[in-house]
Amino acid sequence: MAHHVQSLIEHYGYFGIIVILIGGIVGVPLPDEVFLTYVGYSVYRESLEHIPALVSAMIGAVGGITLSYYIGYRFGLPLLQKYGPKIHITEQKIDFTKKMFTKIGPTLLLIGYFIPGVRHLTAYIAAINNYPYRKFALFAYTGAFIWTFTFISLGKMLGEKWRFVGYYLTHYSIYLILLFIVGMLIAYFLFKKKKWTNIKVGIRYTDFYVMAK
């Protein structure tokens, strides 16, 4: 991986970062986090400049998720179901993301980048569900910045130990995904409970006001 990324950066520079991330977000099976960490490592080695690397990664992530949104909006679910399996987007992943998006769409757009398999689908599902583009852009582009900044910063901070990120993602990513799902479900139910409590308080206040009159 490091050799291929190094060759890519030597030949195409920051443009190569943009192209790789566009492909990775759209659905090409690439280890995006490992790639971003290596970009951070390249910043540590001073073969890349920090700000241009961050900007290039941001452009790539935003370009990829915007293209995914357009494909979902233009061609819809049938295209995803037909060609998704060829890029490891299975029916199970599609159904899971649709259910999650219905419950926590904005949150999923914001931090779904950190979940392999989910980040490739959130934009498609958002477009298929006719999610407004402005709201999509607000959450998805903010998430793109957080994601790219996190892994590039990790690579820069870890330096020669940057490969540990790939190791831990390979061995423990399933536990991180499960932890994320549990956390999102807890947040969702707490939100619903708070909303229902507020409704009941409002009803009681209204009843008290009517009786006082």
Can you characterise this structure?
The chain is mostly helical. It is built from eight helices and no strands. It has helices at residues 2-12, 14-26, 32-44, 50-83, 91-111, 122-128, 133-158, 163-212. It is globular, with a radius of gyration of 20 Å. The chain starts with a helix and ends with a helix. Residues 205-210 have low confidence and may be disordered.
How far is the first residue's CA from the last residue's CA?
Answer: 74 Å
- Proportion of helical residues: over 70%
Overall radius of gyration = 20 Å
Please write the string of helix (H) and strand (E) elements. HHHHHHHH
| Mean pLDDT reading | 76
| Tally of helical segments | 8
| Structural class by secondary-structure content | mainly alpha
Shape: globular
Q: Approximately how much beta-strand content do the residues carry?
A: under 5%
Compute the number of strand runs. Answer: 0
Main beta sheet strand tally, sense and closure: none
User: Low-confidence spans: pLDDT under 50, at least 5 residues?
Assistant: 205-210
